[in-house]
Amino acid sequence: MREFMEFVGLFWPHVVAVAAIVLPGLATGHILLTKHDAREAASWTTVVWLVPYLGVVFYAVLGINRIKRRAIRLRPAGGWQRAAAGGVVPMDELQAKLPPEAHHLADLAGLAGAVAQEPLSAGNRLTPLIDGDAAYPEMLASIDAAEASIGLATYIFDDDHAGRLFLDALARAAERGVQVRVLVDAVGARYSMSNMTARLARRGVTSAEFLPTLLPWRMSYLNLRNHRKVMVVDGTTAFAGGMNIRVGHMLATQPRHPVQDVHFRVDGPVVGQLLRAFVDDWAFTTSEYLDGNAWAAQPICAGTAVARGLACGPDEDFDRLAWVILGALSIARRSVQIVTPYFIPDQRLITALQVAALRGVAIDVVLPAVGNLRLVQWAATAQLWQLVGQGIRVWLSPPPFDHTKLMVVDGHWSLIGSANWDPRSLHLNFELCVEVYDRAFAATLEATVTDKIKTARACTIDDVASRPLPIKIRDGLAWLLSPYL
Length: 485
What we know:
With 485 residues, the protein is α/β, with parallel strands linked by helices. The protein has three domains: 2-63, no CATH class; 70-105 and 119-310, Endonuclease, Chain A (2-Layer Sandwich), CATH 3.30.870; 320-484, 2-Layer Sandwich (Endonuclease, Chain A), CATH 3.30.870.10. It has 19 helices and 17 strands. A hairpin with a 3-residue loop joins strand 14 (406-409) and strand 15 (413-417). It starts with a helix and ends in a 5-residue tail after the last helix.
């Protein structure tokens, strides 16, 4: 033993020195082969070389995507052909359905179809539900009316008044024989002190956590989270958007931390695509594939909207959602309205916004005046000069914090769902959105944006330029961290 310890004492400095070169070198090789964004690659390379040993550990934990979508392999061959068949709209028929001033949007549909590999479906109806005051009663009534199945995925499921309303309703459904599955992100599940998945299990509701982690729950910037919010009932009705389950969305109750949001009730054949996303996530998490009549989509014609589900995540070889947004900006002719709580677009999106504005497109971006994540708001502020300096109108909406996520192009195309305009949603999170081709629905969303702008204040180039130098440096440093936010 003594000789062994002497041997270790003699050679360990050399081992440590070699490891200090070999480990960052291996990490750098992995970065160069797997990262598509030069700034992200440069940032990670700097970390692994300038932070000895710990930089490699940080990259191994946060920088590598290890997700393998077992759900794709678990899905039976042809199992979703029935769900996708209802109301499928070929490209030539879409152009015939659009008025002349919106014919150019058919090209966007072609891009989205190639990216999403899902068909457009006709006969859909989407109903905006403002805040939890409107959304939660509709969702709870749908749960109470369920006869066969309920699939619910959410990022946050708080143990508060709102959470307990859903807990009781889901438990009642399970008691009367409805097949209920609840999927909560493992990080989002820890926003409450008590674990709602455990409480659901005690009430007879089958639930699971997406990618459980042992890291502290208060770390808000962990990678590869399931940020989707969707509930599908009996394969016919869905609720989707950006709203979590927490009392802050129930503004009528005057919560301590109020949060504005818009959720959507979805009826029609596109519900089958939302159900498919949930079934895939459930299979990936639990290895249980939900099959049988209870989980079969029922493509019932409910309205006039043409729509398509857009499921995206870090398991893809390309940024599916970013490509669709870039396509929408490049094809816009008259107007673009964007509402998002977190706004840290990469240089591709900033350039696309600038080019659209220079082409004469009227662009309005509505952001919260007071964010709930300081680093994110600082990073967003650091980039605003690139927008307002090119004639893009940026509006800062007053409290309560606005968590709404939507986009409208040329008064006919809309994008709603769970995704933000930040690196997490566009590169790291699993998100679920719906693109909609419908003038009436777009007009409703435009009215919502107009109402927000009426109470907001404009952010001007003078506002951005007049920030004190220390604030500019602080915001710039936060922007440097944007690949990790």
